[in-house]
UniProtKB/TrEMBL annotation:
Gene3D superfamilies: 2.60.120.200. The lineage of its organism: Bacteria, Pseudomonadati, Myxococcota, Myxococcia, Myxococcales. This is DUF1349 domain-containing protein. It comes from Pendulispora rubella. PANTHER family: REGULATION OF ENOLASE PROTEIN 1 (PTHR35332:SF2). InterPro entries: ConA-like_dom_sf, DUF1349, UCP022704.
Amino acid sequence: MDTRKVAWHEAQWLNEPPRVDIDGEHLVVATASNGDFWRKTSYGFIHDNGHALLAPLPNGSAVEITYEARFEAQFDQAGVMVRVDERTWVKAGVEFADGLPQLGAVATREYSDWSLAPAPDWTGLPITLRASRSGDALTIRARKGEGPWQLVRVTPLAPDAVASAGPFCCSPQRAGLEVRFTRFVVGPADGSLHGGGLP
């Protein structure tokens, strides 16, 4: 499988944002208010109204998303989403929580779970998220700027599941988070659990 750029118009919006602009090769998005992706756990609610731009992600492939954003309000977030349906999905990226940027992921199979690690030095840098699908696993990695890849999460994904993936963003506490997505590429899955990224 060759690595290729996904044109913004090739993918389909799940909950199109109120503002979407094409700036050269970049996609600039401004979020609606109170958007989020979450199912049940601890909070007791179901939110499925964040913004995601999705293209097919068959088994044996990977997707990388690069973006820039200024996170200022509680739970501002952006990154990559891999989605089977409203009950089965993963989102991963940087989220502003408890006063600082955090690198983490939410894996949802009927119920959401959430893992975070502080990432204060990721502010002001391009952020790249990579989701690699191989066999029964989805492996999430991230890096800031041109730095090394960091493993974020390994989570199950059924080999025969029909999934799609792409950039996502939302801002549960406000409207108007602006995210500039600069790269959306797909290619072959990683050759090993501890691997690199797409060229």
